[in-house]
Design brief:
By secondary structure, this protein is mainly alpha-helical. The chain has a single domain (2-170), classed as Arp2/3 complex 21 kDa subunit ARPC3. The chain contains 6 helices and no strands. The protein has helices spanning 2-29, 41-53, 55-73, 81-98, 105-131, 139-170. Helix 2 (41-53) packs antiparallel against helix 3 (55-73), helix 2 crosses helix 6 (139-170) and helix 3 packs antiparallel against helix 4. The longest helix has 32 residues, at 139-170. The chain is globular.
């Protein structure tokens, strides 16, 4: 019982530190570039951790990352991101549990491909909520396509370090 508590607290602290680092790097480092989009490292982290640690951890981390990212990027309160991250983390963990008994890189790429349209929809929804109007002309080529490419690159680059972290957390 005591070892289970220690393991739980180890996981909570490790994931909180990783979330804080990812949030600060995303907002403070990548946010300074004038690209017009920022690679969503929080979403990439959520997908990888959910893929390896399961739906419960994915859902809890999704709420935490969503609140953290909303707090770091908005001045007017929390919107829909925690709820979307909750569902994405849960569904990714559920898909990995039900579909992929082997947690391989190829299976992870399938999860990444399935999550791209969801992330694009969230981006459009956030733009609509923030500005009240979304101009469709040029949205795909100027924002959604570069953001999807940056997100895919981030998901692939973060895969191996986060996989090692998840293995360490399972011990």
């Amino acid at each position: 019982m005591k070892q289970e508590r220690v393991r739980l607290w180890k996981n909570i602290i490790a994931l909180a530190v990783v979330s804080a680092v990812v949030g600060v790097v995303q907002v403070e480092f990548f946010g300074r570039f004038g690209w017009g989009f920022v690679p969503d490292l929080a979403f990439a982290t959520l997908m990888c951790v959910s893929f390896y640690l399961g739906r419960e951890t994915g859902a809890a981390l999704g709420i935490g990352l969503g609140v953290l990212m909303e707090a770091l990027t908005r001045a007017d309160g929390v919107h829909i991101l925690p709820t979307v991250y909750l569902f994405c983390g849960f569904l990714c963990g559920q898909a990995a549990r039900g579909r992929f008994t082997e947690r391989s890189f190829v299976n992870y790429l399938l999860v990444v491909a399935a999550s791209m349209p969801v992330h694009a929809g969230v981006t459009v929804l956030q733009l609509a909520l923030r500005y009240g109007n979304v101009r469709v002309e040029g949205l795909f080529t100027r924002l959604l396509l570069p953001e999807a490419a940056a997100l895919a690159a981030a998901m692939i680059l973060l895969y191996f370090p986060l996989k090692q972290l998840c293995r360490w957390l399972k011990m």
